[in-house]
Design a protein that fits this description.
- Pfam families: Molybdopterin, Molydop_binding.
- By secondary structure, this protein is an alpha/beta fold.
- The protein contains 33 helices and 33 strands.
- The relative contact order is 0.16.
- The structure holds ligand MGD (2 copies) and molybdenum atom.
- Residues 191, 195, 412-413 line the site of molybdenum atom.
- Molybdenum atom is lined by residues 191, 195, 412-413.
Amino acid sequence: MTRRAPEQDVDETQLQVDKPKDYAAGIPGVLVSLQHGVQQMGAARTVRTLRLLNQREGFDCPGCAWPEPQGHRKPAEFCENGAKAVAEEATKRRVGPEFFAAHPIAELAQATDYWLGQQGRLTHPMVVREGGTHYEPIGWDEAFSLVAEHLRGLSGPDEAVFYTSGRTSNEAAFSYQLLARSFGTNNMPDCSNMCHESSGSALIQTIGVGKGSVSLADLTNADLVLVVGQNPGTNHPRMLSALEEAKGNGATVVAVNPLPEAGLMRFKNPQNVRGLVGRGTPLADMFCQIRLGGDLALFRALGHLVLAAEDAAPGTVLDTEFIAQHTHGFEQWAAEVRDLDWDEVDRATGLPRAQIEELAGLLVRSERTIICWAMGLTQHKKSVPTIRELVNLLLLRGMIGKPGAGVCPVRGHSNVQGDRTMGIYEKPKAPFLDALDAEFGITSPREHGFDTVQAVRAMRDGAAKVFFAVGGNFVSATPDTEVTERALRNCELTVQVSTKLNRSHAVHGRTALILPTLGRTERDEQAGGTQFVTVEDSMSVVHSSRGRLAPASEHLLSEVAIVSRLGRALFGEDHVVPWAEFERDYDSVRERIARVVPGCADYNRKVRQPDGFVLPHPPRDSRQFPTSTGKANFTVNPVELIEVPAGRLILQTLRSHDQYNTTIYGLDDRYRGVHNGRRVVFVNPEDLTELGFADGQLVDMVSEWGVGPELAERRVKSFRIIAYPTARGCAAAYFPEANALVPLDSVAETSNTPTSKAIIIRLEGS
Ligand SMILES: Nc1nc2c(c(=O)[nH]1)N[C@H]1C(S)=C(S)[C@@H](COP(=O)(O)OP(=O)(O)OC[C@H]3O[C@@H](n4cnc5c(=O)[nH]c(N)nc54)[C@H](O)[C@@H]3O)O[C@H]1N2
Ligand SMILES: Nc1nc2c(c(=O)[nH]1)N[C@H]1C(S)=C(S)[C@@H](COP(=O)(O)OP(=O)(O)OC[C@H]3O[C@@H](n4cnc5c(=O)[nH]c(N)nc54)[C@H](O)[C@@H]3O)O[C@H]1N2
Ligand SMILES: [Mo]
């Protein structure tokens, strides 16, 4: 216990690299899930816990937001990485007061994310006061008074920031946004700002709803599925089963990615014997190895070719009836893309023209097309126009609002979509606030609040002074690590509601609190009886989740209880919001959700249905498009090439197979052949030769941002080069180790999402 926290996980000479795998899951997947479970929870608890995962009477997986099948569920409705997420939470390891007494905060701040996470579950509320060197225990009541005191002492409510990570339940999220708005601010940044914000921005503008338009049944019945900028083998493994089923029904699957990700190439389904012992199913029929940021040019070229096919055989390719009846702006868009600069497409995508033509042919012949995407599309400067262009492509052939077709942004955190539905948003719409105000008799602020990037700036500049986070790991998840650390240290108070220890506890404001909370897997007992919570998956299905395990410590409070007690401390017992009742019985929160949140009428009954219920989605349900024009909008999206100076590479930051965002499960990335280390950078062998570097060499990565006297450099040290078959000119390294390279001001247009997938870097021998 008193062992000093190591500043490095392993001596990097321990790192081993072998050939990348060409398949995902199979027997190694099953073994690894059990191994993680047994290490963290012991054998009996592993079996008991995994049996309840994603079952109707059990709990929703705290891993990704992939939906469960409606109706029939398999006995094992989870994947290797879901099992790891559960093992992390249900671990028997504990971080209590003795741990904090033994480890000064300065030491914790030096430790790696991996080591911090491995220490176990937080058990007691802890505080460090100004000038303190160690966290010390504090009672819950005193903790809430302390927060309330700091909040009341601010010059105005906008000096407070209320962050949310996407694991928070609907009940906690609804209460939390109500607390922030009752206090008087819309400063509610969330992980979505760094994640699918670009998808929401683009979809709202084009189809009027910022969510995906397909169900799981649509996916398995599509005849063409494009998986763009996504690595489902690692991040949404259960999606591979759906793709396998779609293929079984005759679908063609196309992967668009700079990396040949194992799961997209071949899948050995661990849920059937053939998958375990056989060669598995080749998933992608076509692999377009695109350059980073090349997708806008690709979609434009595809639109151009579809249009050309229509021009060559009028009346046979486009869905002219759909276009006439349901869309706006087609002519303007068509005039723009009829004239295509192939040279620009070539430079942006790096794809052979014949392959783009072949893909256009697939689109022209498809009756039911779905495009799936994730961070490879959302974390670029031109993300919003790229996703708008993807929508254009689908609109051309009427691929929205019919079975087997549509847009499928694959969400990250298990309830990130639900949190937004419940009002966690820095730019809330007036009708939502009006309903909230009418229900509770409060006056919500109308000015927009800070998103994540703006919140960092505000804290850095002293404009925000109290930072309160329900979940997440703000310091490690946000870009520009040095700036973010400075921003948090500049706060008067930082509060982290967390399950596990992470860097955001070690890099803190002048006073800091850790408020330990129940996880999704744990039993939630309140005065009104055993509670359940609700969540929304990536396909707008809302359902219940019931924790079953004994809580990690008797001192934990649920997130709903924490928000409610803070509400009482801040506003007093006779506030218009019945905070005590909210905590006593979550049905009372759900009654309010039913009256305030669109689509949630009769919420308490509907979430008790075996599979929950599906939220309305007008484009999907009835081809109604609630946009500014009342129709689906075609938009014009000019290509802008990423300028890469000579001798530089474009770097993307991504996830290994052994992590959940900033939670590092282990030091392997099995599918990419990396073992026992994370400080690596993947570079194409031909680029290495051209740049004068070699496989295995240790280098610093230096990012370059701005021009002339404005040029700023950021450096991370000692990364080992791995020669890897990524697209030419493109490199990859893991998040969060490479976050220090992402400039705070380098963001996507409109969505303000950090450009984590496109940073100009050079390598330097270290
Ligand atoms: N096990 C596990 N599951 C997770 C997570 C986790 O960390 N671990 N995180 C969760 C969260 S919050 C999220 S948001 C999702 C993330 O899910 P993903 O988006 O799959 O995650 P990344 O690792 O960021 O992978 C990005 C993928 O896009 C590709 N890519 C990068 N840039 C481009 C580009 O310009 N064009 C194209 N076409 N492709 C590109 C990369 O090569 C990579 O395959 O997963 C969720 N699920
Ligand atoms: N460079 C780079 N940066 C990125 C990304 C990238 O691809 N590249 N991806 C971005 C994306 S997509 C996302 S979503 C963000 C993620 O940003 P965050 O959501 O802020 O980060 P996580 O690592 O998911 O948060 C992990 C912490 O959440 C806490 N936690 C876990 N479960 C619970 C729970 O049930 N309740 C509470 N209260 N706390 C809990 C634990 O203490 C754990 O340490 O990072 C973003 N940052
Ligand atoms: Mo995410």
